[in-house]
Amino acid sequence: MNKKLQKDKQLIKEVLYKKLLDSNAFWSYEMSDRKDIPDRLLISETIIHLDVEEIIQLFNIFPKNEIKKVWREDLVIQGDYYYNLNRLMAWMFFDIKMPDRYIKATITNHFKKLESEWRD
User: From its phi and psi, is residue 95 left (phi > 0), alpha (psi between -120 and 50) or beta?
Assistant: First the structure.
């Protein structure tokens, strides 16, 4: 990756981090600076706390499949709590034609996996 592209990505991360700090998204985390935040947390907190414009910026710094994985594993499984947000993400960013069905199936699969792990 060339240095300019890397610098641009770092700048976007810094801007998102600052916006998340301003929105008090990290109130429950103990971190001293931007280097302490893992990419997974930056992705999930941006989706939860920031606007569509900032979510779009995530796609400029992370692969779509990585964003989708974080969304599916961290937000979709929370069910009704982020229901409207999950429907928006499914439809707008991941081209999922039947978001309600996708969300329900993802949650069901998550609980089946937990049940299977619990029984083992």
Answer: left
Q: Residue 92 is encoded by which pair of tokens?
A: 């707008």
Confirm if 50 and 81 have CB atoms less than 8 A apart: no
Question: How far apart, in Å, do the first and last CA atoms of the chain sit?
Answer: 43
Distance set, CA 59 to CA 83, 102, 111, 115 (Å): 22, 21, 29, 33
Burial (CB < 10 A; 0-12, 13-18, 19+), residue 2, is exposed
pLDDT per residue over 28-85, tens digit each? 666 665 566 889 999 999 999 999 999 999 999 999 999 999 999 999 999 889 999 9
Pull the structure tokens for residue 32: 């001293």
What is the rounded CA–CA span in Å between residue 30 and residue 99?
Answer: 35
How many helical (H) and strand (E) elements, i.e. helices and strands, does the chain have? 6, 0
- Residues 103 and 90: beta-carbon distance below 8 Å: yes
Indicate the Cα dihedral angle 73, 57, 37, 108, nearest 10°. -10
